[in-house]
């Protein structure tokens, strides 16, 4: 993602899109929908060209042998890969459509963006602005110079600074990694006074690294804030006190929801 750019559809869309042909029949497509995991419909394509979209609702009153081109929606709302994710969110919200096919300038299908993808784009997003604020805070509090880098980091070299992650949110982060949607980590490179070796502190992305460990991923993209000289950071002290040395030391909590979920539940209980 470009430093000065707003998040785009291309950053969050699913690129491996399942499609159907206009010549497929209703019965076959209905079976695919029923047997699929989370698919309520499919883009209808001719080669790579998008001709329409067929949803489960479109199939309800159709005969089993009807071809899909007869029942599909042709007046299609689509997104462009360079469209801002917030604009795509407005289209989804106002149209009531759950998924938007993403097409390039030639009308070729290049992905699909769902309401769930839009929601994920707004949650725990490691934006350059967020990283810049953290860097500025470190400079102001500790009076140390710092610079930002974008690089790949090995997960076995990271020191976590958070003691636990939540299973329900971990499922979402696992999905993101499996579908190429995960945001970069935020890491602080705090040089050690002895030997000149760095101490990589994980500042943001604990659910993501725990999900990566699940999937056997060894490296991840990261925004790295490199400090010019060693600093005694509070998060490093937390890691020492909690005996956090590796990702394996982060506890996965499966008996409680994420605090935001708990808050929502309490609000509902009071109504």
Automatic annotation (TrEMBL):
CDD domains: CBS_pair_ParBc_assoc (cd04610). Gene3D superfamilies: CBS-domain, Conserved hypothetical protein from pyrococcus furiosus pfu- 392566-001, ParB domain. Residues 13-71, 72-129 form the CBS domain. Keywords: CBS domain. It comes from the Archaea. It holds the Pfam family CBS. PANTHER family: CBS DOMAIN-CONTAINING PROTEIN, CBS DOMAIN-CONTAINING PROTEIN CBSX3, MITOCHONDRIAL. This is CBS domain-containing protein. The lineage of its organism: Archaea, Methanobacteriati, Methanobacteriota, Stenosarchaea group, Halobacteria.
């Amino acid at each position: 993602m470009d430093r000065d750019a707003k998040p785009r559809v291309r950053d969050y869309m699913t690129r491996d899109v399942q499609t159907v042909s206009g010549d497929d029949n209703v019965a076959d497509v209905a079976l695919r929908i029923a047997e699929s995991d989370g698919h309520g419909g499919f883009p209808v394509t001719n080669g790579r060209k998008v001709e329409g979209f067929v949803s489960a609702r479109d199939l309800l009153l159709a005969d089993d042998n009807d071809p899909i081109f007869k029942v599909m929606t042709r007046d299609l709302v689509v997104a462009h890969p360079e469209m801002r994710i917030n604009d795509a969110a407005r289209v989804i919200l106002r149209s009531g459509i759950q998924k938007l096919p993403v097409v390039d300038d030639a009308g070729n299908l290049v992905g699909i963006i769902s309401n769930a993808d839009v929601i994920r784009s707004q949650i725990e997003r490691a934006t350059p602005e967020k990283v810049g604020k953290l860097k500025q805070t470190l400079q102001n509090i500790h009076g140390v110079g710092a610079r930002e880098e974008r690089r790949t980091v090995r997960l076995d070299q990271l020191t976590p600074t958070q003691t636990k992650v939540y299973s329900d949110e971990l499922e979402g982060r696992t999905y993101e990694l499996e579908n190429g949607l995960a945001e970069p980590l935020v890491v602080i490179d705090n040089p050690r006074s002895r030997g000149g070796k760095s101490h990589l502190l994980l500042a943001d992305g604990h659910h993501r690294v725990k999900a990566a460990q699940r999937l056997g991923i060894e490296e991840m993209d990261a925004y790295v804030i490199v400090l010019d000289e060693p600093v005694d950071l509070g998060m490093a002290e937390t890691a020492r006190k909690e005996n956090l040395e590796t990702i394996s030391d982060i506890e996965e909590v499966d008996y409680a929801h994420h605090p935001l979920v708990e808050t929502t539940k309490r609000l509902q209980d009071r109504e």
